[in-house]
Amino acid sequence: METALTIAGSDSSGGAGIQADLKTFSALKVYGMSVITAVTAQNTTGVRSIATIPTNIIQDQMEAVLEDIPVGAVKIGMLSSSHVIKTVVSTLVNVKATNIVLDPVMVSKSGHHLLEYEAVQTLKEDLIPIATIVTPNLPEAEAILGRKILCEEDMKEACQQLNELGPKYVLLKGGHLEGDPVDVLYDGTEFHHFYQERILTKNTHGTGCTLSSAIAAHLAKGNSVVDSVHLAKEYITGAIQHSISIGQGHGPTHHFHQLW
Ligand SMILES: Nc1ncnc2c1ncn2[C@@H]1O[C@H](COP(=O)(O)OP(=O)(O)O)[C@@H](O)[C@H]1O
Ligand SMILES: Cc1ncc(COP(=O)(O)O)c(N)n1
After folding, report:
1. Domain map (residue ranges) of the chain
2. What is the pLDDT of residue 65?
């Protein structure tokens, strides 16, 4: 059985974070496991409060899983602080984890900060270099690089600058630009562009979480990074197309893959 581990925050409304990741793993028939880094009280309209889990408990959760069960891929989402990032990095390096998909979560769709501002430097120096693939959206890439990204040409340059930080692949997501979204994948030499007609919906809560965990699930099944991104794009597109209109704000993506 293929396995994947998510290291991320809990979203009480089930649309993003750990809950989106586990639903994605299940829909793609991969056995899912989780390390919870923070508990958020949130719904489709916003985040009310956040409790970060103590780092010794985060480390214990990681070691409990990694010392016992072979992990095919690791997806990393919300990490809250510099201390949490350092704990996660040292534990992953100790066990020589591979297939690391890093979604550098910073701000929720509803505008709430999920990562301390000062932690961006630690993310850049310690975590991005060990990632197999890092999947920032445009505001996250702008925060990491300290520059504006306004068009597809800027996206290609940003991919090159992010690649210099050390990850094997960069997938820069273009959902936040106007018009049809384009995502750009860069492996240090070649670019792949993923064009997709914009689906007209406000239900985009958890799209980044869903995409990164779908990439992890496909890596766990033994696919190459490029194939995993292709397959994950198919999955997220279906999940947005069939997204669920619940709640007053941004509704969640749909994970009952076999029902689409
Ligand atoms: N309205 C949409 N229609 C089709 N694809 C979308 C839409 N919004 C986002 N996507 C895709 O969903 C993924 C995550 O999107 P994005 O909004 O850029 O990141 P995040 O959720 O991290 O903010 C990307 O592959 C993006 O192209
Ligand atoms: C626990 C947690 N992790 C990640 C996100 C980002 O998802 P989104 O950008 O769709 O708000 C979130 N809202 N909550």
Report:
1. 3-259
2. 98
Give 183's strand partners: 194
Which stretches within the chain are classed as H helix? 17-27, 55-66, 82-94, 119-122, 138-145, 152-163, 207-220, 225-241
| Distance in Å, CA 77 to ligand 2 centroid | 8
Say how many Å lie between the CA of residue 109 and the centre of ligand 2: 7
For 3-259, CATH number out of 3.40.50.10490, 3.30.70.1270, 3.40.50.10860, 3.40.1190.20 equals 3.40.1190.20
Which amino acids bring their CB within 6 angstroms of ligand 1?
137, 173-176, 181, 183, 196, 198-199, 204, 207-208, 211, 233, 236-237, 240
- Between 30 and 109, the higher pLDDT residue: 30
pLDDT of 109: 85
Interval 203-240: pLDDT, tens: 999 999 999 999 999 999 999 999 999 999 999 999 99
**Token pair belonging to 223:** 């696919």
For the full predicted model, state whether its pTM sits above 0.95: yes
- CB 217 within 8 Å of CB 28: yes
Residue at token pair 């301390």: 116
**Collapsed DSSP state (helix, strand, coil) of residue 170:** strand
Cα(106) to ligand 1 centroid in Å equals 15
Interface predicted TM-score (ipTM): 0.98
pLDDT tens for each residue of 73-100? 999 999 999 999 999 999 999 999 999 9
The CA distance from 43 to 50, in Å, is 13
